[in-house]
Amino acid sequence: MGKALFITGTGTDIGKTYVTGLIVKKLRDAGLRAGYYKAALSGAEILADGTLLPGDALHVARVAHLAAEDASVSYIYRDAVSPHLAAQIESCPMNFHKVEQDYRAAKERTDYLTVEGSGGIICPMRWDDAAHVILDDLVLRLGLAALVVADAGLGTINAAVLTAEHLKMRGIPLKGFVFNSWAGGVMQEDNVKMVEALTGAPVLARVEHGAAALPMPAEALAALYD
């Protein structure tokens, strides 16, 4: 069975899937057997016949040149809302036994499995009369360490430190940060300094807008996987 790493973000729409694609591509380009898994995806692309397409997984597969079976998603929801609400709307709650099975099957197929979360680390995955499950519960259940994707710009100190503090409180190991939409300059350089000082975790890569590759050695990236 291979190794795995969980990718979360400081919030929604900060480029987590984009960075995840670059992470998987970096491993694949280094000749490593890498794959992708996501427990739940909401806001799926809808074809004319009503078929739901997992846009995030398809993006990563396209960027990293993955076969379909190496980019899997357990639950695909139509509505672009939090997974717990999408599940309520579609009357299709997540079964976490199935998630664990799918995760372990994906892990068996690869040496380095990148597991992408939904939204931020406190994203509700299921919230009904039968179960209350937050994303961090799932990360703990799967025994994963986390890499956090954050926007490099204004506000990232607060968002990054709060995410790191929550991970620490829940006992989830933090491997470090990737800053997305990197443009450089005094403020963003200070953001790196302050986030590292306040969390004790490194900013491992700075990804410029439109970057085609993760600016980080493949060996250092692979070493993050447990």
List keywords for this structure.
226 residues; seven-stranded parallel beta sheet; 11 strands; 39% helix
Secondary structure layout plus pairing:
Elements: E1 3-9, H1 16-29, E2 34-42, E3 45-46, E4 52-53, H2 55-64, E5 71-77, H3 83-90, H4 96-109, E6 112-120, E7 124-127, E8 132-134, H5 135-142, E9 146-151, H6 156-170, E10 174-182, H7 186-199, E11 203-208, H8 218-222
Parallel strand pairs: 1-6, 1-9, 2-5, 2-6, 9-10, 10-11
Antiparallel strand pairs: 3-4, 7-8
Could you walk me through the main structural features you see in this protein, from its secondary elements to its overall organization?
It contains eight helices and eleven strands. The relative contact order is 0.19. It is an alpha/beta fold and 226 residues long. The chain is globular and about 50 Å long. It has helices spanning 16-29, 55-64, 83-90, 96-109, 135-142, 156-170, 186-199, 218-222, and strands spanning 3-9, 34-42, 45-46, 52-53, 71-77, 112-120, 124-127, 132-134, 146-151, 174-182, 203-208. Helix 1 packs parallel to helix 2 and helix 6 runs parallel beside helix 7. It is 39% helix and 28% strand. It starts with a strand and ends with a helix. The strands form three sheets. Strands 5-2-6-1-9-10-11 form a seven-stranded parallel sheet, sandwiched between helices. Strands 3-4 form a two-stranded antiparallel ribbon. Helix 7 links the parallel strand 10 and strand 11 (203-208).
